[in-house]
Amino acid sequence: MSCYYFHFQVGSRLIRDTRGVELEEPHEIITCSAHIAVLLKRRACREPEWKEAIIHVEDKERRFSLFLPIARFADAIPRLQAS
């Protein structure tokens, strides 16, 4: 298992994930990011710039870094909310 941190950035604001998430497989990063996008969409009415937000994923050692635009998950959000 590896620990990954899912930081959230909107414009110049960066919200750091200080706890991290233990994942068994690296492909779980996408699923976890999609769930984060669902949670963030609930704030869309208060913060309309959420569509330009980025989820920045990195591992504990900072050897792995991935930038995922929230818009990438726009099609998955209704499907995930229904489950």
TrEMBL record:
Every DUF6894 domain range: 4-63
Superkingdom, natural source: Bacteria
InterPro entries the record matches: DUF6894
Protein name: DUF6894 domain-containing protein
Organism placement in taxonomy: Bacteria, Pseudomonadati, Pseudomonadota, Alphaproteobacteria, Hyphomicrobiales
